[in-house]
Amino acid sequence: MIKVIEARYLGDFRVGLRFSDGREGILQGRNLLKNAGPLLEPLREEAYFRRLFIDAGALCWPNGLELSPVKLHATCLATEAV
Questions:
Q1: CB atoms within 10 A of CB 56
Q2: C-alpha torsion sign, points 42, 77, 73, 25
Q3: CB within 8 A of 2, min separation 6: which ones?
Q4: 78: helix, coil or strand?
Q5: Cut 0.85: pTM above it
Q6: For 1-6, what is the mean pLDDT?
Q7: 81: pLDDT confidence band, cut at 50, 70 and 90?
Q8: What is the 3-state secondary structure (H, E, C) of 5-63?
Q9: For position 76, what pLDDT does the model report?
Q10: Over the Cα atoms of the chain, what is R_g?
Q11: Cβ-count burial of 37 within 10 angstroms (0-12 exposed, 13-18 middle, 19+ buried)?
């Protein structure tokens, strides 16, 4: 099972991610925020977006938003270093 094991805010709504299989990638948060929904509204403020954390291998925010590590793994751009 894939899990997020490291998440670092990189600026400009981007998050560097490291997964349990060793893959690294970048979540382009601006793409996520193109969607609508009450859980996404607080994330439009950069100060709130930066409050991300990992819980049980998923990328989360204090308002209860949780992003699936499997979906993140499939969609994040591969990078050499996070």
A1: 9
A2: negative
A3: 19, 20, 21, 57, 69, 70, 73
A4: strand
A5: yes
A6: 96
A7: very low
A8: EEEEEEECCEEEEEECCCCEEEEEHHHHCCCCCCCCHHHHCHHHHCCCEEECCEEECCC
A9: 87
A10: 12
A11: exposed
CATH number of the domain located at residue range(s) 4-78 in this protein: 3.30.2020.10
SS3 at position 4? strand
DSSP-based three-state secondary structure for 72: helix
- 4 is written with which tokens? 């997020």
Q: What is the pLDDT of residue 53?
A: 98
- Among residues 82, 77, 56, 80, which one has the least CA distance to residue 67? 56
Residue type, 81: A
Q: Which structure tokens are listed for 33? A: 């925020």
